[in-house]
């Protein structure tokens, strides 16, 4: 018997990054999207090395009606801003921690957009990647009751983990 390919659910979030070397940073976003059962797709796109792929991906994001694109990049991190220039799909920018400047360069490259083309910018590194995924879940939760319930449960578990810590002396 041959294995049947399972139909893949249509992605609701796009996750892109400027290089394969960004993958470790972005893994936290992928893990959380999976935990919330939000279908996603992943692409490596570079504003500098594959600039021709940016308008193509932006058009795809609109065609698929993605709720948002999470875009991680480091150094001269133009990927989130350039994608935002090509599409009205909300772009959540994750500054990857660079070797030379510890991600300060990535952060400023992503956050300092000119008025008119916004990129929602998150913390440098893995915290930013995770929070971008949680933000994507919050966006979907405005219209999706199942995602809303999972997000509420995630928050409740996070709170319990703090309050149930034996080192927490309570109030
Ligand atoms: C950026 O340059 C990427 O987002 C990555 O963070 C950085 C370094 O890329 P590699 O030289 O490791 O491919 O475009």
Give an overview of the whole structure.
This protein is α/β, with parallel strands linked by helices and 171 residues long. It has a single domain, classed as Rossmann fold. 44% of the residues lie in helices and 15% in strands. The chain has a 5-stranded parallel beta sheet, sandwiched between helices. 5-O-phosphono-beta-D-ribofuranose binds next to β3.
Which CATH class is shown? Alpha Beta
Give me the CATH fold name: Rossmann fold
Number of helices: 6
Q: In sequence order, what are the helices and strands, one letter per element? A: EHEHEHEHEHH
CATH architecture: 3-Layer(aba) Sandwich
Distance between the termini: 62 Å
| Biggest β-sheet: strands ordered side by side in the sheet | 2-1-3-4-5
InterPro entries: PurE_ClassI, PurE_dom, PurE_prokaryotes
Domain PurE: 11-162
Protein name: N5-carboxyaminoimidazole ribonucleotide mutase
Pfam families: AIRC (PF00731)
Summarize the structure in short.
Keywords: Isomerase, Lyase, Purine biosynthesis. With 171 residues, this protein is α/β, with parallel strands linked by helices. It has six helices and five strands, in the order E-H-E-H-E-H-E-H-E-H-H.
Topology:
Layout: E1 13-17, H1 23-35, E2 40-44, H2 53-63, E3 68-74, H3 79-86, E4 91-96, H4 104-111, E5 120-121, H5 126-141, H6 145-163
Parallel strand pairs: 1-2, 1-3, 3-4, 4-5
Helix pairs in contact: 1-5, 2-3, 5-6
Tags for this model:
171 residues, Rossmann fold, five-stranded parallel beta sheet, 44% helix, binds 5-O-phosphono-beta-D-ribofuranose
